[in-house]
Amino acid sequence: MASDASIPLTVPLSQQLWVRNRDVIxxxxxxxxxxxxxxxxxxxxAFAYYVGQDAFFLQAFARAYSLAAAKTTxxxxxxxxxxxxxxxxxxxxxxxxxxxxxxxxxxxVGPGAATRRYVDFLLxxxxxxxPIAIAAAMVPCMRLYAHLGQELGRSGIPDHAYGPWIxxxxxxxxxxxxxxxxxxxxxxxxxxxxxxxxxxxxxxxxLNFFEAAILAGREVGHGGxxxxx
Length: 229
Known about the structure:
Layout: H1 13-20, H2 22-29, H3 32-39, H4 44-71, H5 75-102, H6 113-128, H7 131-152, H8 163-169, H9 172-188, H10 193-220
């Protein structure tokens, strides 16, 4: 983890973790997958692979929210985790629309190595740790996607095939979901090696997830640059 001794302890925990992981965040924003989303040049084969893998991952993400809810001690936190799980189901609906458009069978998708690594980590944390550690493992996905969507849509939603992805993750609704999970971490969490390690590992998994999609797209070798407008 990138250290930054200058961060005041009064800064919320979620912000401390975000700043300390800015090296991986920068790498995600400038990786080939995200830059291809930004300008519409991402090969269709890479995005199709990503959609299938992300749908598999999101099913595990929803289960992790449910496990976290079961471990909470307050009605407020129980409701929060269940509300966030509902947001994941909405994401899955978005992926389902992509799959229908391209004729993908999401039920037949198996996890690649990067996806399996991320899912295994997430579910192991969800089964073996408390709700705060689970939140620390899940916040990076939420905050990173909100950040990427907002950065890519800073000058307006582009008029190409990946515009809906940018609009979804850069929108106010997704930002609100990310803030809700961060708020729980800030209210109940404390800086510790366990929390920092979980956050960092999840960030590394995000970068590997994007890189795997690019590699898979190159191996497939069909679909051409971009998907048109």
